[in-house]
Amino acid sequence: MTAGRERDPATQIQAPTREARGCSLAEIVLVEPEIPNNTGSIARTCVGFGLGLQLVHPLGFDIDEKACRRAGLDYWPRVSLTEHTDLGAYTPAMLDAPDFWLFSAKAERTLYDTRIGLGDHLVFGRESVGLPDALLDAHPERCVTIPMVAGERSLNVSNAAGIVAAHAVRGAIENGVVRVDKNGRLERHF
User: Whole-angstrom Cα distance, residue 27 to residue 30?
Assistant: First the structure.
């Protein structure tokens, strides 16, 4: 695994290196998603923010062209999509990412104590059970939660991914990696 990048504590995102140019701002990774509507919503968020989407099989639904057309996912062809046959096939990509963050309601470190960098993998688990305990236990320093009020167990995965994506974009804007143009649209500087 590539060691975590050294980052200035005052920044949210590292300025891009020559190798990082052309990559996505970050990658949303869904491990064995079960609900097609959640994945569709996350895919639309990825398109809107310029993020990549990685899906780790098995999926609880079809994403072939016919299924996407029937569901009215007119944006699906614009999704920067990578698929992995299973978690074992995805793990090398995760370990090769600049950094990776495992989102879990069980984590103690919050999103707001985390610096999301260019090309980082933002990993979410199945709607019914989250990420596998073995994965979380193997990387406790990478486990992150979105703070909520006491007594609530979790957020819907599409809402959680949207919050995390917006946090990543805000950090990128603050650090000049992304700019908002006069029409309120994002412009990438990498």
Answer: 10
Q: Is 184 helix (H, G, I), strand (E, B) or coil?
A: coil
Angle 41-176-4 (CA atoms, 0-180°, nearest 5)?
75
Q: Tell me the CATH architecture of domain 34-81+96-176.
A: 3-Layer(aba) Sandwich (3.40)
In whole angstroms, give the CA distance from residue 103 to residue 168.
14
Sheet holding 26-31, edge to edge: 80-84, 52-56, 26-31, 120-124, 100-103, 143-144
Q: What three-state secondary structure class fits 34?
A: coil
Residue 151, Ramachandran bin (φ over 0: left; ψ between -120 and 50: alpha; else beta): left
Tens digit of pLDDT for each residue in 128-187?
Answer: 999 999 999 999 999 999 999 998 888 999 999 999 999 999 989 988 889 999 999 999
